[in-house]
TrEMBL record:
Belongs to the LysR transcriptional regulatory family. PANTHER family: HTH-TYPE TRANSCRIPTIONAL REGULATOR BSDA, HTH-TYPE TRANSCRIPTIONAL REGULATOR YBHD. It comes from the Bacteria. Keywords: DNA-binding, Transcription, Transcription regulation. It comes from Amylolactobacillus amylotrophicus DSM 20534. The keyword Cell inner membrane does not apply. The keyword Transcription regulation applies. Residues 1-58 form the HTH lysR-type domain. GO terms for molecular function: DNA binding; DNA-binding transcription factor activity. InterPro entries: HTH-type_LysR_regulators, LysR_HTH_N, LysR_subst-bd, WH-like_DNA-bd_sf, WH_DNA-bd_sf. GO terms for cellular component: cytosol. This is LysR substrate binding domain protein.
Amino acid sequence: MNLEQLKIFIHTAETLNFSRTAKDMHLSQSAVSQSVNSLENELGIKLFTRDTHRVVLTRPGQSFYGSSIKLLINFEDMLQTVKNLDTAEKTNLVLGMLGTPLDNTVMPWVIRDFNRLYPEIKISIRYFTHDELEHALANKVIDAAIQTADDVATNAYFHLFAEGKFAAIIANNEPLAIRTELSIRSLDYHNLIFLLESQCSPQQKELQQKIAELCSNSTIYYANNYLEELAMAKTALGICILPFIKLAGFPQKDELVSALPIRESSEIGYGVVTKGKAINPATTTFINWIEQNKLS
C-alpha cells in the first residue's frame, strides 16, 4: 500500500465512478482499476461491489474510507509541519540580548541593514538577564546571543563584530557630562550604579571592583540587569558603568545621558555567540554578514 493507492481509492470512493477518477487524476481507467484491485488483494477484502451499471462501497470499504481520510489528513499535516520547521530554520532568527547600549543603539541599525539585504529572514529579539541569556542559549530558546568576548562559555562559539571599552553613562545635567573621557578617580563622590556581580561579565566585575576601591567616597547602588542600570542613569540616580562602542554615525549621547569612555578600561570585544557548529541557515547567514561588515 502506498500514498498514491490511497488517493486513488479515496477519490473513487467519493465519485463512485472509475472513469471520473481516471479523468480527474490524469490516469487511464485501467490504471485506476489495477490500483484498486491491488489494494483489495493486499487488504484481503472487497472495497467496492461493481457491475456494468454502478459502483458501491462495501461496509468494509466505507470503514476503510473513513480511516483513509484521517490517515491522509494526518500525513499532509505532518508534511506541512516538517516543511514549516524547515522554512523556520531557514528564515527565522531569534537573538538574545542583555540590553547594553550596543543592543539599544547600534543593533537596531545593524539589523535594519541586514534585513535590507535578507528580507526573507525574520529576526526576533528577546532580552534576558545574564544568567537567563546563558540558559536560553544552552537550551536553544534563542539561536544566538549578543555578548562580550570575556563572557562566552567554553563550549560556545564567538564571532567578533565590534570592539570598544566600558563607559560611564552619566546624566547630561551632570558637570562631568561635558567631558569626552573619564578617569576612575573622577567618579569619586558621585553616586554609582553597579550591576550585581552575579550578572556581570568577568571584565565588568573586575572594573566595578577597581572603581569601588578607588571611589571610597561614593555611594554604590546595584541593578539587576543592564536595562535597569541604564534606566537608573537616565533618571539621574547615579552614574552607571556599561559596555560601549564609539562608532562614526552613532551618537555618544542622547537627550538624557552621555557615554564617556573610562580611561582605565581594557578593550572589550562584542560578537555573536552560538552554542555549537550545528546552527540553522538563518543564523549562519547573519554571522557571515556580521563578520564581513565589522563595526569597528
